[in-house]
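Please predict the structure of the following assembly.
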Amino acid sequence: MTAADILRLDLPALTAAVLACATCGLLGSFLVLRRESLLGDALSHAVLPGIIGGFALTGARAGLPMLAGALVAALAATALITLVRRAARIESGAATGAVFTTFFALGLVLMEVTGARSVDLDLDCVLFGQLETIVWLEATGWSSLLDPAALATLPRQLHLLAGVALVVVLTVALLWRPLHLLCFDPDYAAAIGLPARRLELVLNLLIAAAAVAAFEAVGSILVVAMLVCPAAVLRLLTDDYRRQVLGGALLGGALGAVGYALAGPVPAMLGSGVALNAAGVIGTLGGVLVAAAALLRPRGPRVAAG
Amino acid sequence: MTLGYNTIVVLAGCALLGLAAGTVGSFALLRGRALVADAVGHAALPGVVLAALLVATLGHDPRALPPLLAGAAVAGLLGVLAVQALARTRRIREDAAIAIVLSSFYALGVALLSYVQTLPEAAQAGLNKFILGQAAAMRAEDAFWAGAVALLALLLCLLLFQRLRAACFDPDFARVAGLDTQRTDLALLALIVTVTVAGLQAVGLVLIVALLVLPAATARLLTFRLPRLLLFSALIGAFAGAAGAAASAVEPDLPTGAAVVLAGAACFTLALLFSPDRGMVPEAVRRAGRRLDAAQEHFLRAAWEAQEAAGAGPGTAGDRWTPIAALAAARGWGEGRAWWIARWLAVRDLVALSERQVHLTPRGAAAARRAVRAHRAVEHHLLALGAADTAGADRLADMVEHGLTPEAASRLLPEPSALPASPHALGGKP
């Protein structure tokens, strides 16, 4: 395998996997700590009609309209979940399930109706992800990494992923203390006048943005694994806020890299013809890690450092 | 579309599936287990793929449904057990456990699927259709299998009815009465797995949770009684299942699961908006009606008190015309609002209306006297108790006087038949 091959095929997909998993891993801790894991499930499904809508309106698979549509869909879904829970007086799990399945179904039908499916946003992308299709055809060798003309042709999924990752990291850094309070002591946070609802809104929007950016890489459903699995592993192992959040991001990134390597490049290096779906391997690894952490976690009394 | 034998059998199978899902879903919703079905559905994928792989390796037809359904059931059960094991760590709550299990089992299924599709003998099994469902691709014998499994779930539900009801409504009582709620919960989980497996081909494993949640949630909006809840939920489920199958027959490319979910969601939305007891529209109408009643009583009372303040006196009300603007000022209302209420009262023949002035008709005077008495009775009561000062009593009475019957007002007043004087000056609002 030549340097050009690695740059063309493996590097873009690997970068996409690491960026998507690290971003989701960073945000997942806030879901798990705030006991809102199902919201991650709900948002990752609910953005589908927004993505298809943004796609249908502009007719192109461009990042920003799809992102905008997805954020609108995410806001609508969270508002509807609250409305349904209050008006129908059913528990929030059932309200969530009723709303996000409806949104997802709407997205599937929109896909059929708008013809988006036949162009290039197909069902396989939604269900399985298309990490393998993120390629950088203009790369010719290591020198391409320093060549601005070649760098400009990097796949657009990477641009979107990098942009969302940057926004997420900056926002989390900026809101580090308030988010800490929101996770561990929401009552105290409300008492000292923290705008808890607005913070929750910001978090939900970030999660929706991460879900969209990761959508093309890993698909709608596997985003859930990226969001919840690294955070759950850390939750089993630590009580420390900093370790939980940063560790979640690091573990997510590592999962992305290792999962991608195990799916294709490693078997290829060993001379096997088997190539597995990378997103599936990453998600499976996440589940295995949670199971391992649950079995091997330290037990007994510990001092809570949170 | 032509209704061939195959289509009819598939339609019937899907309706039966919806019937079972609606019934099981009601208990799942009441017991707070609705989303476990989401974990079960997604967890079934690796089971289906492994079963197809095994069957193909043994040299049989990987499209045969029973082994695939068995694989789905085993994997679904494993998923449920994994959720429970994770929740037992107490550091991961059930909702996070559901998200972990559904996504990582599904991921395993995706990875296995990408492997199986490279194998010639298993590739044609068409496993993709189990993810979002494709009723149009079902053969009559598939529909028989799905229908039989659904029927089994339905029968089990009826057999276990007493236990399930006790576990849903009063788990403490059930325990005291010697019913093992843990075993009942396990039975419920088994029922959820059964329905999920039955729905694999028609609805698909991603959206099957909606067929359990939406009909049950719709039925909850329509009734409070369990037998009726089960009946409504089952019927709505059957409708959604049949609608999905019909949509798939017309438009085979459409994922059937999506059509089923949208049919269920349409029912749910209609119930959410228009259910007589709990719907948002009837509720808004009732609230608007109550506010209109209160506003009418306030208007009539203001008209009466304007007479009183001018010295016309009770009983002679109707002698003088009062400008609507003055009444609006007395109530602290905008003039436009007072005008609309005056128009409505004129329609009901309670006031006469002329050139932006009103006077009470005899019927209006009687209604106004009742409103004034109710208001003063509450005021008097609050003042006698020492519960409020004059202004506070006036404000509080404005809020509570509207439901007060004349008999109740009599009991609150010192002289039951007389109309007492107002404890405060009449005219403008403080």
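Chain B has a mean pLDDT of 86. The two ends of chain B are 72 Å apart (CA to CA).
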